[in-house]
Amino acid sequence: RTLSTTLRWSADPWPLPHTPQHLSNTQTPSDIPPPTPIPRPGESKETLRARLVYQSRKRGTLESDLLLSTFARDHLWQMDETELKEYDKLLDEADWDIYYWATEGRTPPERWAKSSVLEKLTIHAKNEGKVVRKMPPL
Fold first, then answer.
1. How far apart are the first and last CA of the chain?
2. pTM of the model
3. For the segment 5-41, what is each residue's pLDDT rounded down to a tens digit?
4. Neighbour-count burial of 31, counting CB atoms closer than 10 A to its CB (0-12 exposed, 13-18 middle, 19+ buried)
5. Which residues of 123-137 are buried (b: 16+ CB within 10 A; e: fewer)?
6. Tens of pLDDT along 66-112?
């Protein structure tokens, strides 16, 4: 039986975050309009906050789950209703976009350029206190 000695070079199917290949593969096309939020008339501030905690934890990528769930644990309770609604709109964006905007891997689009919530998330992502982060308990 003959074994091939030819090396097959192909793209890594799971590139590491912050590598050029990952940055290019996770770029949201600029011609896609921002997502339209689901209207939730009459939602109380407590219900909004509880929903945002859940949505911060259940994102779809471990990196986003960890970043957003620890941010929600540390900051949601101090936010007023305006900031909570802004954070709700931010969570409608794609996971990798939020992750790279927060870690300053990409420049956020104009609609998020002056966001106080994204600014807080960026500071949280820097983790200047070198806090060991793990998923908060349910």
1. 55
2. 0.78
3. 656 666 677 777 878 887 787 777 777 887 788 888 8
4. exposed
5. ebbeeeeeeeeeeee
6. 999 999 999 999 999 999 999 999 999 989 899 999 999 999 989 99
